[in-house]
Amino acid sequence: MLIGLTGGIGCGKSSAGRFFAEEGFRVLDVDRIVRDRILTAPDVIESAINRWGADVCLQDGQLDRVRVAAIVFQQPGERLWWESLIHPRVGATWRAEVATEPYAQWVVEVPLLFEAGLEKGFDFVVCVAANAATQLNRAVARGLTPAQAEQRIASQLPLDTKLQSSHAVLWNEGSPDFLRAQVTHLAGWLRGQIR
């Protein structure tokens, strides 16, 4: 079974992913794939330099993720170009990993699942949600300014749209144990569907 895990920024997708892993699911974090594999690829770095100049790189030659984020979130056209460069590589990477164990129970954490039109590629889609104030506060707690957090939230589909398009919703307004209990319950139900 291939499960897509999505939600808005600051909603708790990574926490839900960890809890699915505790339940025995194989979990892939697309953000980690981007950070560790895609953004370090020489052809991606070269494309970014050709598009934006050498100052998008740090002294060690790696991409300055803060600088790249500032460009793509302030300029919608640049974000579309960047996504057209990154998304196909990300998709190929996680699909190749899933293909190594096609009968495993996979959870793929994809923040832009609906934005990228990937929902039909999953057997089941789970959305992690929280209210707007909580989203903003969590994003700021991770180091974004309020303006940056609002900009990133605005760049995604409205959370209500994601909720209506998902098979299940995990509401993350309580403690981590509250979210864990929801994941445990859903994981049990999903295992029952697989048999």
How would you sum up this structure, described in words?
With 195 residues, the protein is of the alpha/beta class. The chain has 2 domains: 1-25 and 105-195, P-loop containing nucleotide triphosphate hydrolases (Rossmann fold); 32-93. Helix content is 56%, strand content 12%. It is built from 9 helices and 5 strands, in the order E-H-E-H-H-H-H-E-E-H-H-H-E-H. It has helices at residues 13-22, 30-38, 42-52, 65-74, 76-99, 132-141, 146-155, 159-165, 176-194; strands at 2-7, 26-29, 106-109, 124-129, 168-171. A 5-stranded parallel beta sheet has the order 2-3-1-4-5, sandwiched between helices. It is globular, with a radius of gyration of 17 Å. The model has no long low-confidence stretch (mean pLDDT 93).
Overall domain count: 2
Distance between the ends: 11 Å
Topology pattern, helix = H, strand = E: EHEHHHHEEHHHEH
CATH topology name of the largest domain, in short, is Rossmann fold
Could you name the CATH class of the largest domain? Alpha Beta
In CATH, the homologous superfamily of the largest domain goes by the name P-loop containing nucleotide triphosphate hydrolases
Percent of sequence in beta strands: 5-15%
Major β-sheet strand ordering? 2-3-1-4-5
CA-atom Rg in angstroms: 17 Å
What is the tally of beta strands?
5
Nearest-integer average pLDDT: 93
Alpha plus pi helix count: 9
The name of the CATH architecture of the largest domain is: 3-Layer(aba) Sandwich
Please identify the structural class as seen in this structure.
Answer: alpha/beta
